[in-house]
Amino acid sequence: MNKLPILLVGAGGHARSCIDVIEQEGRFRVSGLVGTAEQVETFVLGYPVVGADSELPSILQQHAYAVVAVGQIKTPEPRIQLYEILAGLWCALPVIVSPRAHVSRHASVGAGTIVMHGAIVNAGAIVGRNCILNSLSLIEHDSVIGDHCHVATGVAINSGVHVGAGTFVGSHVTVRQGIRIGERCVIGMGMRVLKDCPSNTHLPLHSNHLKNIDRTI
């Protein structure tokens, strides 16, 4: 089977994880990456960095498919900007799903989202565009994840949860069923979310910030 060429926009650590998922999925072959000016003509896991962000319009003339391969923790802005550039240039942004993940046929996943190894998206869940569902994350039934979110490793989003656009949910966070988390929130690793969080809520990112803080909110 001929694999379709795909361009990765981003050439850092998250791009490495994306490459592994793309290789395992088997639909696409990585034709190159776009990174910073300093990264041009280097290689990421054997794949060339073919240009910088400023060259995207010309590079995309040779690529019908692309994926945003920049990570997201403190702010979604770089991923949002790159996604909008790609969409504005009529580039196809496929959903990438690891063969070691499970996405229910009764769930919906938006364009440009990557579902990584061991992740589960259960029946009735809706996941927006340009999201990262990282390794071993769980999106339970009837939950909604807005556009441009990063659900990090080992997160448990229980049933009926609503996560607003641009939010980062850190590793091993557990969110109680029915909770609403607003837009552009940052939920630090290991937190237990037991009540609603308004938009722009920022909770500690690292456990060493939590010595005198209850991890439950």
Q: Would you summarize the structure shown here?
A:
This protein is of the alpha/beta class and 217 residues long. It has helices spanning 13-25, 56-59, 77-88, and strands spanning 4-9, 28-35, 43-44, 47-52, 66-68, 96-97, 102-103, 108-109, 114-115, 120-121, 126-127, 132-133, 138-139, 144-145, 150-151, 156-157, 162-163, 168-169, 174-175, 180-181, 186-187, 192-193.
What name does the CATH topology of the largest domain carry?
A: UDP N-Acetylglucosamine Acyltransferase, domain 1
Class derived from helix and strand content: alpha/beta
Outline, from the CA principal axes? globular
Task: State the CATH class of the largest domain.
Answer: Mainly Beta
Helix content: 10-25%
Helix/strand order, N-terminal first: EHEEEHEHEEEEEEEEEEEEEEEEE
As for the number of domains, it is: 2
Low-pLDDT residue spans: 206-214
Give the C-alpha Rg: 17 Å
Could you report the average pLDDT, rounded to the nearest whole number?
A: 93
Total strands: 22
How many helices does DSSP assign? 3
What do you see in this structure?
With 217 residues, the protein is α/β, with parallel strands linked by helices. The protein has two domains: 4-88, Rossmann fold (3-Layer(aba) Sandwich); 96-217, Hexapeptide repeat proteins (UDP N-Acetylglucosamine Acyltransferase, domain 1). Helix content is 13%, strand content 27%. The protein has helices at 13-25, 56-59, 77-88, and strands at residues 4-9, 28-35, 43-44, 47-52, 66-68, 96-97, 102-103, 108-109, 114-115, 120-121, 126-127, 132-133, 138-139, 144-145, 150-151, 156-157, 162-163, 168-169, 174-175, 180-181, 186-187, 192-193. The strands form four sheets. Strands 6-9-12-15-18-21 form a six-stranded parallel beta sheet, with helices on one face. It has a six-stranded parallel beta sheet with strand order 7-10-13-16-19-22, with no helix packed on it. Strand 3 and strand 4 form a beta hairpin. The radius of gyration is 17 Å and the shape is globular. 41% of the residues are buried. The model is unreliable at 206-214 (pLDDT under 50).
